[in-house]
Amino acid sequence: MARNGLDTMAERLARYLAGRSSRRSALARLGGWAAAIPAFPLLPVWRRDARAAAPAVPSPFAAKAQVKDDTKCDYWRYCAIDGNLCTTCGGGVHSCPPGTHPSPTSWIGTCFNPQDRRSYLIAYRDCCGQDACNEQNCLGMDGDLPTYRPQANNDIIWCFGTGSLLYNCSTAVIVGTAE
Amino acid sequence: MARNGLDTMAERLARYLAGRSSRRSALARLGGWAAAIPAFPLLPVWRRDARAAAPAVPSPFAAKAQVKDDTKCDYWRYCAIDGNLCTTCGGGVHSCPPGTHPSPTSWIGTCFNPQDRRSYLIAYRDCCGQDACNEQNCLGMDGDLPTYRPQANNDIIWCFGTGSLLYNCSTAVIVGTAE
Amino acid sequence: MLADRRSRAARRIARSLLAATVLTAISTYKPALAAEPILQTEESDVVTLPAGGPHRVLVEDGVYRHSKDGRVYVVDLDTGRLLGMVQAAYNANVVADPAGKAFYVAETTWERGNRGKRHDILAAYDPRTLEMVADIDLPGRALITPKKPDMAIGADGHYVYVYDSSPTNAVHVYDTALKSVVRTVDVPGCGLIYPWGNAGFSSICGDGSLANVQMDAKGKPTLTRTPPFFVPDRDPVFEHSPDVRANGHVWFISYSGLIYETTLGTQSSVAKPWSIQEAAGLKRASDARAPFEVTWRPGGWQLAALRARDSHLFVLMHKGTFWTHKEAGSELWELDLKTHRLVRRVPLAAPSMMVGVTQDAQSRIMLTDEAGDLVVLDGADGKPVRKIGALGDALIFTAAPGE
Amino acid sequence: MLADRRSRAARRIARSLLAATVLTAISTYKPALAAEPILQTEESDVVTLPAGGPHRVLVEDGVYRHSKDGRVYVVDLDTGRLLGMVQAAYNANVVADPAGKAFYVAETTWERGNRGKRHDILAAYDPRTLEMVADIDLPGRALITPKKPDMAIGADGHYVYVYDSSPTNAVHVYDTALKSVVRTVDVPGCGLIYPWGNAGFSSICGDGSLANVQMDAKGKPTLTRTPPFFVPDRDPVFEHSPDVRANGHVWFISYSGLIYETTLGTQSSVAKPWSIQEAAGLKRASDARAPFEVTWRPGGWQLAALRARDSHLFVLMHKGTFWTHKEAGSELWELDLKTHRLVRRVPLAAPSMMVGVTQDAQSRIMLTDEAGDLVVLDGADGKPVRKIGALGDALIFTAAPGE
């Protein structure tokens, strides 16, 4: 019954990098892990030729999102964030505040940018090493699944591999398009 | 220049038990440590025969104090307390909440009881081992001196000898009269 | 006047001597004339709680803003008083022994606060003295904003289960008699712990199935799987679905409001789901395939609580679209799990992320609000009983006796 | 599907492999077509601060309600932005290197949070990366609700001094070049640290005198005492009396409002005191001998701040009796220390326990309030500049460049 180590690792890796899907429905934001163990994944698919048929606004969050102020909860990338915005804690939208470290792993959401009307894969990388930065706290729930689907859950402390796993704030990093 | 260990210990002990004074002024609440190193102290002097000439209300706090509700900041014994009332944290006026431990040492204030119009020596013994109990927080300043007079200072964490020195709440224990 | 640097040991000795002397001095002092109208001198002591009743509950405070200082409060719902607290550091979990003999906290610290060696800890407490009766290091634990089913206890209190996920999904089995972890059971692709019987638990798997683990007398586990009974991408079930650990009965609640009555065991069985909204005379709510539909939906953190004696379920409900499953409830809906009918809708004075209920005849409902209050309602009619103001910072779940 | 219990080491290895793999995968990925109107993929990074100006300050948050999680905030007063934070656990203290090369935090942790081995720590930080450049254990430190003079740094930044009091009063001398404690100086009967020059400090003693410590080139200390210059029982001087560490100038402020201008050194000299209230055209305030007199009095926590360039003192004042020395100020009084005259009374929008000031020509005044806001006023006229809302829980003191 035991599984070999590489399989297990590949499966775990798949979870952390999950969210690969070319479907244009709301389901696109949900990870592909449950479907199967994929071949060793590199990065999300990036299909430029699907650009012409951009999806309609895919979620209630996206319908109200803005693209100008990344220190506010309704900024488009924060459709599935849970925690303190690093942009208000001394960091940036993809930068950790000084004195903290970005988690090399993260969970992945899919957010719709109302400006170019594309959906992007967003890695919510936590910045770790100091206790909570208590500036702007936000909770986006688009596509957030329970922890039995860890790749799509925003309650897990995504601080693996950063030394101490104390959670300070969250970034929202574009890692690909979701088309 | 070195002092022998016993002297130092005696001096420290004196600080913790300080406040011995038979003067009936507001000064009575201030410790006797600075005056000299006393003979090895036992407990505060208790002079019954001074009873007849009880002092007038000795401080602004005492003038407004009440004797009925020990969960309120204006309870007479809290004239010089600083912190969370153990009476609101699962303890009592001289009892620590379960899971915490009373400090064997404390600082000493002198509070006036408006009911019997006597002044008592009050040991503010901290209860230690859990982080702050955040119920009723009070700050009495009667006779509170800076930390260079530790026996009369309410900012020191009086948790020596209790394992961890995390401060949970404060009790106000009658240890003698101040007459 | 100048002494040179002294050893720490010497200071320690001096300190303990000092402490001992002062204690002795104080405790041998007695007032000479007890008849005098002078307040007696007192000795310091520590409260030991009397045996608790059904309204003495545990409330976990996640303290999100200062998560190193999470704690568990012991609260008397009848007086509204805080009876004591223990540390529950950094995304901790707590479970109570079914017979009330102890409670257990799984927590995590680093030796230098935010750095240094990590300790994943299981601490056991005497519920009357709140003194630790065990304090061991676990092989690890999952660091997740705490959900109740990240930790569980068997029906007879012998095993405590602690969920781990770094890096593989596993459950550490702590033996409360031996005071040590006796087994780690891998549950690949699955998470959370819903206990059944004395030595069994089930986990929810990423494909919508259940993994059922039974341990034999030696603690050796056997795992079985059910077929998938829900589609996680479309309408996942909440982690905080309420259960009765003694008989392994769980009512899994989905984001859209479906209830899957489940009997756990080596062959867990799941009944056909029914809709909370339909039970209330409304239309069944949409799932992720129609996310824009606004209707009453379940949501919150500990969003549901079960009163086993009459099979009543209390669920926090709010009006919103799909993907609002963590929104605080503006109403509390009471449902009869046997008849699948709504008993009552209780509008809340303030939105609540949490609901708990005591199991006794005069049951009490517990809610919270943004200010960290613990709001107590009468379990019979949902009427307000009292508000325990500012009990904590982020009250996230409760544990009531016998639940 | 069941794997038996695995060793922790194996999990660790798997975990680090995993992390390394993911990092590599991400960092080698580059967008193929930069010209396309598609938002570029990004890499995660960590902010390094540019060199700071005079308005980049440190603010200590004592977090009284969760004191294990005290912290020091780095704040830009011009933008009102939080630039970063570092841990400052349990009654910590912070001092900044006079040239801005580093800052130092003295803090205390227990390995299991509220229990286990205690660590008294001195951590040094790079002020632009907020990375630790030293992290050593101290022989001990005093656990006191933090006052600024519980820790100090010499004028050239070579020595950092940490006050200890358990059980004897002593000062640990940390050598910032050697990154270790090189000396512990006992100051029996005295407390607090007011530095002067590169290798000297004074402490206030319980009888109202000063102890002056000078260390020679080898760090060997010599101690001298001044005669008492105040009566502590009657009118003690505040711990948070402001100083200029470079030249050892301190203005000791008494509870009643007397100011003792003092030049520290091996032979510290104290000038005849003058009254804040008299400087404002009022009557000199009573001391402990007449405690009921209600008048304007100094009070708060960091209740006074000094702007060295024009010798202006800012003091928080409130109306009250004696024994109200920790009451928050309802006005800020600005005094000229050379002429002993009141410059300005600034009524505050909310009472403040803390005042700080920056040392530059466009100086800023920092205040706080019950909500943990950092309120910024113009140092020229006391007019509001901005409010940094809810910066922390209990802002207790500030450290501005060059103070």
TrEMBL record, chains A, B:
Subcellular location: Periplasm
Domain Methylamine/Aralkylamine dehydrogenase light chain C-terminal: 67-176
Role summary: Methylamine dehydrogenase carries out the oxidation of methylamine. Electrons are passed from methylamine dehydrogenase to amicyanin.
Active site: 107, 126
Residues with PTM Tryptophylquinone: 107
Pfam families registered for this protein in UniProt: Me-amine-dh_L
Subunit structure, interactors included: Heterotetramer of two light and two heavy chains.
GO BP annotation list: amine metabolic process
InterPro entries, sorted: Amine_DH_Ltc, MADH/AADH_L_sf, MADH/AADH_Ltc_C_dom
GO MF annotations in UniProt: aliphatic amine dehydrogenase activity; methylamine dehydrogenase (amicyanin) activity
Protein name: Methylamine dehydrogenase (amicyanin)
Family of this protein: Belongs to the aromatic amine dehydrogenase light chain family.
Domain of life: Bacteria
Primary site of residence: periplasm
Top-rank EC class of the record's enzyme: oxidoreductase
Keyword Zinc set for record: no
Pathway of action: One-carbon metabolism; methylamine degradation; formaldehyde from methylamine: step 1/1
Biological source species: Gluconacetobacter liquefaciens
Residues annotated as binding substrate: 82, 154-156
Key words, A-Z: Disulfide bond, Electron transport, Oxidoreductase, Periplasm, Signal, Transport, TTQ
Reaction catalyzed: 2 oxidized [amicyanin] + methylamine + H2O = 2 reduced [amicyanin] + formaldehyde + NH4(+) + 2 H(+)
EC number per UniProt: 1.4.9.1
A GO CC term attached to the entry: periplasmic space
TrEMBL record, chains C, D:
Localization of this protein: Periplasm
Alphabetic keyword roster: Disulfide bond, Electron transport, Oxidoreductase, Periplasm, Signal, Transport
GO cellular component, as recorded: periplasmic space
Signal peptide extent: 1-34
Cysteines joined through disulfide linkages: 190-205
Gene3D superfamilies reported in the protein's UniProt record: YVTN repeat-like/Quinoprotein amine dehydrogenase
Family as reported in the entry's similarity comment: Belongs to the aromatic amine dehydrogenase heavy chain family.
Protein name: Amine dehydrogenase
Species of origin: Gluconacetobacter liquefaciens
Organism classification: Bacteria, Pseudomonadati, Pseudomonadota, Alphaproteobacteria, Acetobacterales
